[in-house]
Predict the structure.
Amino acid sequence: MNAQPPNQRRGLFGRPVLTATIVVAALLGAGVGGMALADRSPETSQARWQDAPSKGTTSAAPAAAETPDSPDSFTFSATGDIIMGSVPGRLPANDGAGFFDSVAPGLKSDLVMGNLEQPLTEDTGTSKCGSPPRDSCFAFRSPPKYAKHLKEAGFELLNTANNHSSDFGPQGYTSTVEALEGAGLEHTGAQGEITVVEVKGVKVAVLGFSPYATANNVNDLPAAKAIVEEAAAQADVVVVQVHMGAEGSEKVHVRPGSELFAGENRGDPMKFSRAVIDAGADVVVGHGPHVLRGMEFYQGKLIAYSLGNFAAGGKTLKRDGVLGYGGILHVTLTKDGTFTGGKFLSTAINPAGKPTRDSSEEKGLARVRELSKADFGDSAAVIGQDGAIAAPK
């Protein structure tokens, strides 16, 4: 089917932002990892999905992570921070080929999302760190062609609302958007942007938030609630992607109040998450602290406060101890946004910076289970030894 005509508004750096509806046809028993985008029209942002051979791994997704066979429900998967490498000198081996092979089976779902924490751009001549770069300043970029690695892994929608998406200025951000769209990938995260995709007959709106002016502002709760309400009017389900919270190996706990880091107010994670749920959001997917945090349910809706570091190619991020743990979150929702099940799959970053599946589940999963209980008590997500997620009774 073809998309409905999009609504147009002004977004990041004055670009027109399109609110598009895209039809995603699920492949039976195989998720969406083997689909390719076709017939995209830049004039109308119309698209349709067609079956195509998978370019990534051919391994089957774990049975527990598959979408229930229901016409009124769908499953999405999501990850934390993704950095594939950085030019110059810190790119992965083989120019990134096979970068996501270990985790691709675990990503498979009806809609695969991740937080892309770097531009995909050539050198724009404008780095936030200056030239030569300032000490203790980090600006990452990978070549635009690396969008194909995301596509081959099964990703379909990337969040760009974070503190690195504009490392190389407006031109770098524009290049990132062009690279993603050129690879047939959707994106969200610009200020005022609502991205709507249709998954198994369910219209899903995805919005990105961060503490930065280029994105929907995590610290402006009235504006956040207003855009969530607008998204809820356009879709059946609303998923919030949010980059929030202080950074570091000691920042694993969630407490009431704003979190400050490097002189920035990086939001009040609990207050923000509950506010957007009150406004109509059905799930909150957090990232930003570079560590895993706990999960809770509020008004029957799941809040995952941080999914940690997922990939750090080229030694771009510290990955010692808890900084090297991440995970893949699977969430199943009905058309009215009701949570019917979830699963957390542990991942770990290997010495080359690639994400790998931690099949022992002794790292990330154990951390999330412990932190959920410690931080949220009666509202904590109930997480089984196998990673299954349930709401508290």
